[in-house]
Amino acid sequence: xxxxxxxxxxxxxxxxxxxxxxxxxxxxxxxxxxxxxxxxxxxxxxxxxxxxxxxxxxxxxxxxxxxxxxxxxxxxxxxxxxxxxxxxxxxxxxxxxxxxxxxxxxxxxxxxxxxxxxxxxxxxxxxxxxxxxxxxxxxxxxxxxxxxxxxxxxxxxxxxxxxxxxxxxxxxxxxxxxxxxxxxxxxxxxxxxxxxxxxxxxxxxxxxxxxxxxxxxxxxxxxxxxxxxxxxxxxxxxxxxxxxxxxxxxxxxxxxxxxxxxxxxxxxxxxxxxxxxxxxxxxxxxxxxxxxxxxxxxxxxxxxxxxxxxxxxxxxxxxxxxxxxxxxxxxxxxxxxxxxxxxxxxxxxxxxxxxxxxxxxxxxxxxxxxxxxx
Length: 374
Known about the structure:
Blueprint: H1 2-88, H2 93-102, H3 105-112, E1 116-122, E2 125-146, E3 149-163, E4 166-170, H4 182-194, H5 203-217, H6 223-232, H7 239-255, H8 259-264, H9 267-297, H10 305-335, E5 351-352, E6 372-373
Antiparallel strand pairs: 1-2, 2-3, 3-4, 5-6
Helix pairs in contact: 1-5, 3-5, 7-9
């Protein structure tokens, strides 16, 4: 047993120096790695200042290029977005005419006001303007493109357009039928900025106006809207037609007042129809006389047709009377007294003023026109 324990002790003693050797080798390896790292770091620290400066310059240049590209892309994107908003709020000539002709007045005004139009500025040049108002005017013709080609429709509305600080009242025919170009949009934006209005102010307005235009194009007519529109239209019957209709009704009432008509109709009804037709005829004749008087008041150098006809009639009567008296005097002076036992001609005496007899026996205002009388 003692021999076994001694052997174990010797074996342990031999193993301990080996472990010590391992520790010494590992420590030497770590020291060598630290020395190499320190040497590499020292070499890297010696080379870093120039390389770091170049790397920083390259990084700054790349960052500046990226920023400029982003700025350019943002500017282009913004312009395209604004141009799309403007085109959505833009109305062509055909769109304006259809909105005015097909929609009720309230819906048409809601869609047209604060929209943008392209006005002809002379030749092929056009300019962009904002619609700020609508006013009634005398009807005028507007060409409208339809399924069967160009059709002409009558429109009685003019639009008031604003560009910068100036406004102008124009007809629908002055509005272009083409889309807005980018150059015209840029010109309008610069003009607005010079007038003190930023173009960004109109962006929200353009969005809302695009929604209003789309809603107006999708408008559905119902019976109430159709009835209101028909009621608001003016009566197409003009004064001459009204006067002719009143004369017709008056004649019908008179023709039904005979013995056979009285048996078929009530007397009071016929009398009421006659009075209504007579009153309507008097009103139309009075309106016609007033309109004729207003027409001649604006033209004081012209005679009315009635005065011209009366003047011609008086002149013709005067000339005929003079010719007849002249013929009678010539007959009495040439043949002497008539023979009572001689049969006279039964035909009437015809006097023709063909020998320039106007100067004989006429007043100073007479003329020498030829005439015949019996």
